Amino acid sequence: MAKLPVTRPSRTGLPTEQQADALYQQALAALKQKQHAQAISHLTAALRAEPLHINALMLQARVLAEFDKYDSAIELMQLAVTQQPDEPEACFLLARWLTRVGRQRMATAMMHRAVQLRPNHDAPRRYLAALYGNMGHDEQSQYWAKKAIRSKAFSVREAKVETKLTVLALFTQASGSLGINRKTFGIQTTEGHNNLAGLLDSDHITVIRFHVDTLDQQPELLRKLPAADVIYNSITDPERCEHALHLAQKVCDRIDLPVINEPRAVLAASREGNYQRFKDNPDVILPKSVKVENTQASARAIVEQAIKDHGFELPVIIRLAGYQGGKFMHKVDDLDSHDFTELDEKLAKEPQTAYVIQYHDVSYIDERLPETRLYPKFRAFMVGNTLYPAHIYTADHYNVHHKLADPFMHDNRWLLDEERDFCENPVEHLGKAQWQALEAAMRDMGMGYNGVDFAPSTDPAHKGELVVFEINPAMRNWVNQLPEGDHVQQAWNRITQAAHQYFVETGDVDPWAYVLPKGQAPQFVIPTDVECHPKQALPHHGAANQAWLAERLGDANDFSDSAFFDTRHYIDEALLEHTAREQGIQVTRHPGRMLTLTQGQQQTLFYINAPRIPLATHLLDGDKAVLKALFTRQGLPTPTGRAFNDIDAAYRYFAACTVPQVVKPINGFASRGVSVHVSSPDAFRAAWQKPGLFMRLA
């Protein structure tokens, strides 16, 4: 626990509260000594003595969160915050935990409260902007982002060990897009930027993050910026961020420093600008495109107008500007049968910039999948003056992206071999002439860090040419998000190391060895020496169970007329409220299964399950292996199975099973992360590798 909470004074001075105070202090002392079990015991006793003890509730919630018991932690913290709503740290923690479990609206509400309590702090405003961004409310997100940067236009991330290079990184909040990582609660700058600034060597590089939007009202800020060795323009989208890029260029013009990715070069890299640049290139096809700005016309009308005015031929691509990863992109083969609903809804919501792009075929048929048309998308990165391979995504759909390509390629592992070949030797895989032609085209862009998506044309009329889908610096670097040692992760390793060297050379400082960020845990490879037995489905006993139940119940019961037949509330809450009202007790509901019970001058805040349930019980009911052992010891029937934290051992157990298995996190709840009817090696691997699982039960 990074920081222990501030102790709040007692309220009543009653003996029970004094006892809870003493136990709370003992819990604090135990936590300072890393004695979590002892602290849990003291907190449990404190809440038996005084069930609404604010200090104990908050500390118990923090301990639960350390053990990933976020739902229980949220319930306890809500009890504390309801009593003491002016505690900004508690509101912030509650927002963080609510985000972790996906309750984004409630998290945003709590962050609003944190902003109210800290009106002069920029951090709560930035988090509020990111939370709105996660919910897709861009207008509110940008409002709070602008409020944040007005109070703090730049921030400095000092090197952890020693500053060997200082980078002035340019950002925008007004025309960029913020989001938040549910797991880490880190703020992510998404649309309009790449993530390279966050991958620079944090031990030896100091990064000054400057939001250029403030220059409109505060031009004097340029004089207040700390000294730097090099400017890195992290703003990458010429359409969404046009005004910000003009402001960024002013910064570069005023400060006499070398610049990586000069803003004017990014502005020239629009889809329309790229087409003009490469339309006469004999080796590269950058498809003809037309931009329709500030439009709310229907998508079909936009396509029809482009065909009429610019000579496009079906099929064409229509996409909305400012989105990456194939978002809001459609291939239109036939105007009458195409479903434009997704695009039309976005266009109706607010004016958009749309592109219509001539489609060029890159698909092919392979004898290993003779019934499927394959669509490849190669990616490479220009760093300095050298082009590096990144990956090939291949899928059975024209809109190729990671989530579509990854399972398809793992089902057809020869595609992974082709990708590996490209990553390790792009010249041999693609052909020397094509690779050199692409590298020369990328140099013409005038940017030192720039990505390209492309594929060889399969149109006989364009044999030997490369079709370029995208050229821009907005593509994100995945070096620390991929399995360590994977061929694609190694490719990103080379790109990131090259970027480090490029920054060092551009800043004209002495070089040093950069230990790159580690990737994720290596991906499990199904062992070939383990035979996986066929899984025979067990007979379905549903009908027999219903018959057994009907025989013992007699006539079927009909609860539809019951006052408690209400799926909006838990039945225990409804029964409690009904009984209380019968006795003249007023009941008020609160979020988190809390009720306020009032009778005359007496009032109590009541939570259905806690805090009288000891913390040990909370921890126990989340450990399925322990509960399974307890049930078995008491002779209660429970499905066979074992707990594992090693995937190899788990797979060997699974392979020996003869019936389909359930794979689930040992500490999960509400069916989160559960995979049922797992019958094949690939299904087992997918079930095990679901995000957030750190121990599994088969």
Automatic annotation (TrEMBL):
Per UniProt, residues of the ATP-grasp domain are 628-676
Q: Which keywords does the record carry?
A: ATP-binding, Nucleotide-binding
Stored Pfam families? TPR_16 (PF13432)
Q: Which SMART domains match?
A: TPR (SM00028)
Q: What is the lineage of its organism?
A: Bacteria, Pseudomonadati, Pseudomonadota, Gammaproteobacteria, Oceanospirillales
InterPro entries named among the record's database cross-references = ATP-grasp, ATP_grasp_subdomain_1, TPR-like_helical_dom_sf, TPR_rpt
**Protein name, per record:** ATP-grasp domain-containing protein
